[in-house]
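Service request form, structural biology core

Requester: graduate student, group of Dr. S.
Request type: structure prediction, single chain
Budget code: on file
Notes: please return the result as structure tokens.

Sequence provided:
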Amino acid sequence: MISPQGIVIHAWAQPDTAQAQAQVLAALGAPDLADQVRVSLTASAHGHTLQLWMKAEHTARWSPGFDTLGLARTLGLDVWHSAADVRREVVVAMLMGPEAFEFPSLAELVSAINIRCYSVHAARKTNLAFHTSQAERPEDCWRYDEDRGFVIRAGASLIDALTKATQPEVSGTLYAFSCYRASEYVIVLGIAQELAQCNPPLYQQLQTLWQQRPIRSGEFHEVFLREQGSMEAPLPPRYYVPGDRTWFRNPDGVSAEASGFEGSWVMYMGGGEFTNFWKRDQPYTLEQKCLEIYHWRHGLYLDAEGEERIDEDKVAVLVAKTLQNPAEVARIQALMQRYREPRGVYTAAGGCIDTTREFARWVRPGTADLVLPAP
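Core staff response, request fulfilled:
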């Protein structure tokens, strides 16, 4: 049976366990959780190692089986309208973590939570024009480099550029690019907003770099992200913390050949909802996402050029029809809510649930492990 591991802070100087717990929970805005949280303080080579985790009985009551998708509802949180409630869900979900969230300082823990909250706020406002081959950016703060892709213009603010590219209520325009790139922009926007407050020199380095070249794809993962879970030791399938990035895989090898439909990169926004970057006012539940991806196989067709495409209007009709049949919904969910298989492997055993979650690296002066590459 998996037990909560919660949060670990290294190099802790305070030798008193009760005071340490009170200091951390106060910094997280959750002093009222003292009775629900266990704490351990052990000597280490660099002071003490402090660990705080939600008591098993509270984890089982609030998120049975580490299913945090109903956590906000259980705790009566309004994560759509209250920034404080988003923060509360982040803190409680992290304290329930089946794999410990490790930090070199309390300041890094606070920044990690700030970044998650910034990312959730940005994700809720992100809306794109869907196109599998086009890419656009607001021209007042972006330019396209033939060799390096989209970079921000000299003198432009990275935070403003990312905001305008993703949030039509700011720019007045829907821009087209992939959900993968959108998830990168949401994450780096959250990181940039925190860096501007806690580590301005690193923020300036990041902005200067993005004026010369973007960081994207595999390099983005290496530079900006930490990852929990693995194919060998997967996270519980319904355990998510607001601000996580994850991938829902298309387990159908045929329709996965259609460009843009290999899977779907999403951010978890809390309250049981994942991003819908094409219709931000219609976020997905895990069940809705599984149904949509399942029916991609039934929307496959060849266009005039012989390219594989997915008829999303047909998929929407099929999803709506399936929802009228509870037995069929249950059958599909049983198939799709399995863990995904390794890349390149497609068998009847595979589902669409990823084994890992991704979130930001450390960012504070003196402890940051976010190391920017050369231009």
